[in-house]
Structure formats: C-alpha cells, structure tokens
Amino acid sequence: MVKMHKINFFLVTICLYCFNGSIAFAQPTQQAWQQYRDEFLEEKSNLEQRCAVGKAENNKGLSKFNNAYVEKITKLRFQAGVGTEKPSQSFFSGLSAAMAKVCPEVW
Q1: Where in the sequence is the domain holding 90, given as residue range(s)?
Q2: Is residue 79 one of the residues assigned to a domain?
Q3: How many separate domains does the chain show?
Q4: Per-residue pLDDT tens for 54-106?
Q5: From which residue to which does the signal peptide run (predicted)?
Q6: Which of 46, 27, 26 is nearest to 36 (CA)?
Q7: ∠49-98-91 over CA atoms, to 5°?
Q8: 31, 33, 89, 100: which has the fewest C-beta neighbours closer than 10 Å?
C-alpha cells in the first residue's frame, strides 16, 4: 500500500513539474497587426495625416476604411511606385487599431 502511494506521488510530481515547465516557457507572441499598430503609433505625424484624410473623407460621406477606398489607395501606391507589394490584412488591421486610438471619430 505504501509503495502504491509513493508511485502515485511520484507520478503527480512529474505531471506538475511538466505542466509548470511548459507554462514557464510559454511566451506570448505579438501578432503581425499589433506590430503594424505599434509602428503607426510611433510615427504620430504620419498617423495624424491619415486621420486628417479620414476626416475629409467622412465629411464627403465616405468611410476611410471601405473597400473602394482601400483599392483606390493600393492602386495609387502601385502607380506611384511606392507600394511594391500589396498591403496585407494585417497592415490595414494595424492601421485601423492605431487610428482608433488617435482619432476614434474617423469611421
């Protein structure tokens, strides 16, 4: 009987050690959209310009974040040679999150 308790205690100890060890090594990773958000928040002047454009678009009854606007900007970036690759969903998600902090009135 004593031998069985020692084995159970040993097994429980090993399980707890493995569980706690895996938690200690788990590091939260930042998502791509969060990295874009942080980059936009660091460049306040660029973000404030985007907010101004968003307010102007809102005054015309247009949304800064509608699909037609995004397609227009992407096309203009390619034509101007500024955008060499298509902006990702993470890019726009990060931009939206940054603008929500800086100019939440823009829709």
Answers
A1: 32-102
A2: yes
A3: 1
A4: 899 889 887 867 666 667 777 777 777 766 666 667 877 888 889 889 999 98
A5: 1-26
A6: 46
A7: 90
A8: 89
- State how far the Cα of 9 lies from the Cα of 13, in Å rounded to an integer: 6
Residue 64 lies in a domain: yes
Q: Which amino acid is at 39?
A: E
pTM: 0.57
Which two tokens mark 10? 């040993």
H-type alpha helices, the chain: 2-25, 32-42, 44-59, 67-80, 89-102
96's CB contacts (< 8 A; 6+ apart) are 65
pLDDT in tens, 3-23: 555 666 666 666 666 666 555
Residue 15 lies in a domain: no
CA neighbor of 40 nearest in space, from 103, 84, 106: 103
Burial 60-69 (b: 16+ CB within 10 A, else e): eeeebeeeee
